[in-house]
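Notebook, p. 212. Picked up where the previous page left off. The plan for this session was modest: take the two constructs that came back from the sequencing core last week, fold each one, and keep the raw output in the notebook itself so nobody has to go hunting through shared drives later. Recording the first one now, exactly as returned: residue sequence, then the structure token string.
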Amino acid sequence: MGEFLRARRKLLKPEDVGLPLDAARRVPGLRREEVAARADISPEYYLRIEQGRDRRPSEQVVRSLAKALLLDDDGANYLFRVARPLPYLRAVREPSVVSDSVRRLLDAWTQTPAYVTDANLDVLAANRLARLVSPGILVPGTNLLEAAYDHLTMTTVMNGADVELEWEETIREYIGALRFNGDPDDARLQDVVGRLSSRHLSFRRIWAEHDVSPLTTGLRPVTIEPFGRVDLVWQTLGIPRSPRQFLTTYMAEPGSRSAQALRALSGGLESTLVLGGRDRESGDERAS
């Protein structure tokens, strides 16, 4: 919690909270005593919280700190969660196994790319259309954030800095979701963060900002031949009774070029499935 408070404090400008500009100010962001005053607590008490010497501030204090730091709803929810950890739940963490009912749902969506991830952005399951939309990425075992950095590295070498700016938005979304949903005590989260920190300067910079935000919806550019690059709308929802699993679907605006591309891709998939079924039927007849 202390790291989060310190990072968010340093990102705020005095003018953001109505304080006068001071040319002599050397401290980035707000001073501790300024945050304490906005939260209506003593500077000494705020210092203890930020330094981790008071690990259980009251709900009222946490709410005041969220307001003092101008946190949005996601940031406030995250602050409440790290201020009220539930260690007894961590001991009973369930394995990341996708239920049979969710797998059947994925397979039934032959015209909608869909996949399931966990809190660490590891892909747990994906239907065939999703694997066609993002070949080599939307397959079980892939970490989406690490895959995004790999793609960024490759495309930046080929196409220059413009692509880097475009992909940073996606990477920021993933990092915000990783921090929002992840459990700091999870060995897998620590592994992902450690590996990315050692490889990518931009990850270390963005991770240190402590931005938190769950994945909800947005646009994702993909390449579908022969249509080339198209934009698909993605939406992510939590899976009931699977608290650390998330279902993401891709959609396209009706009548758009993106919709034509998805329709062509799903039509080819359905043809493959039909032909595969006929081949199996023929094989069964020959065997009989």
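Okay, moving on. Second construct, recorded in the same format:
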Amino acid sequence: MSQTQAYVLDGSLNEVPAGVAGELYLGGINLARGYLKRAGLTAERFIAAANGSRLYRTGDLVRWNNEGQLEYLGRIDHQVKVRGFRIELGEIEAGLQGQPEVREAVVVANEGPAGTRLVAYVSGNAGQVIDTAALKQKLGEALPDYMVPSVIVELEALPLNANGKVDRKALPVPAITSDKPYEAPQGPIAETIAAIWAEVLQMEKVGIHDNFFDLGGHSLLLVRVHRLLEDRLRTPVALVQLFKYPTVGSLAQWMERGAAEPAASSPTAGDDRALRQRAALLQRRKSAERVN
């Protein structure tokens, strides 16, 4: 539209670089004076820019691509706060839809006994098979770990309402289960670890090969696990080791051998993810005052 300017701004009204999500603001001579007889909404949506001009807040989440075009990611009102981080659900959805096997995707924040968790729902392109574990790993390479959904649910098609939009209320509520065959923990240490995880994650049982983060755990819950472990095993455990050994088996093996001798298993993708979880916890601590 001629004589209309588009700006992509962050929460402090600073322009963001290409590829970074922000809210779309419009300016120019085509801008209206405001909403008729709705002074409150006018004050909320029409703001004064630093140069003295007026801008309109669209509420749309967008980003500039490398070709100088705007990509629509969703609505700002789908912004949620999870473990102290403000998250744009549209940015996660865009990451999912950028995968060749995904036709459509939607992400919601579900409240549960273990706190708020992100759940993604996807449907696949014709002839494509969706590997949800691989999809989570791809997202983890592109997004901060706190933005990676705890669960990805594959559906034949996303439910739609009468207006043709995704009906979020009709999405099935998933149960967090392990993707590994259950194998009972052996030994008092492994059994105690599994019991604590099951208690904290509100699960019926946890197997020896289960990964704490793949079961929906996160860094704040791990702090609670750390306290319970030290209390019940009467043994000091460095919190960093819980990030380093995110499965029941690897953590039990390390505790049985002692801190001076590493566990025999080599680092895995799950271990890498655990380290990113630790980084997310540190980032949250540094930015807690800013985001709150």
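Notes on construct two before I forget. The helical segments are 39-45, 89-97, 132-142, 188-201, 219-233, 239-244, 248-257, 269-291.
Flagging for discussion at group meeting.
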